[in-house]
Amino acid sequence: MSTALKNLSSYNMDEVPTGKGGIFGIVVSEWNSEITNSLLEGAIETLKAKDVEEKDIYIQYVPGSFELPLGASKLLDKKKFDAVLCLGCVIQGETRHFDFICDAVANGIMTVSLKKDIPVIFGVLTTNTQEQAIERSGGKFGNKGVEAAITALKMASL
To answer: Which of 1, 16, 86, 132 lies in disulfide reach of 127, CB 3.0 to 4.6 Å?
Structure first.
């Protein structure tokens, strides 16, 4: 279904597993912080709504989306987590830099997840414009942070 037709963050919360007793890490990019802070808020609210205690949510900031995989890896070296969410935002510019960053981040997050055998969730917006990022970080298309938290809860329950 086309994004234009759906709020991607709409879920039947009764079907989402509880996070009670779970420990979750969140790695957040400081770049595009007006967007990533909204993603973070959505993720935290969703985890707490599914019974994750605030003391069991660990937040680590990194400079940009490119640093998310290493941030997740370092976080996983410090503590046993049920899942780690990576939240970032890359907005298309005038050069191919966007393509390289998006590819590296996606592959890096997957590599960390497979290497550490822990769900590491891709909660990174890759948009063409600032407006699209706003629409996907609490706007009319939902909040990718909410989606990342729900994915983390589902994967942690495997």
So the answer is: 132
Asked if 9 and 142 touch (Cβ cutoff 8 Å), the reply is yes
Burial of residue 157 (CB within 10 Å: 0-12, 13-18, 19+) is: middle
Task: Give the Cα separation of 59 and 80 in Å (integer).
Answer: 14
Given a contact cutoff of 8 angstroms between Cβ atoms, the answer to whether 31 and 64 are in contact is yes
42 is catalytic: no
Q: What domains are there in the chain, each with its CATH number?
A: 27-130+138-156 (3.40.50.960)
Whole-angstrom distance, CA of residue 121 vs CA of residue 71: 13
Regarding pTM above 0.85, the answer is yes
Give dist(CA 137, CA 146) in Å, integer: 9
Catalytic residue among 6, 20, 78, 97: 97
Residue 1 has pLDDT above 50, yes or no: no
**pLDDT digit string, tens, across residues 41-53:** 999 999 999 999 9
Contact 112, 76 (CB under 8 A): yes
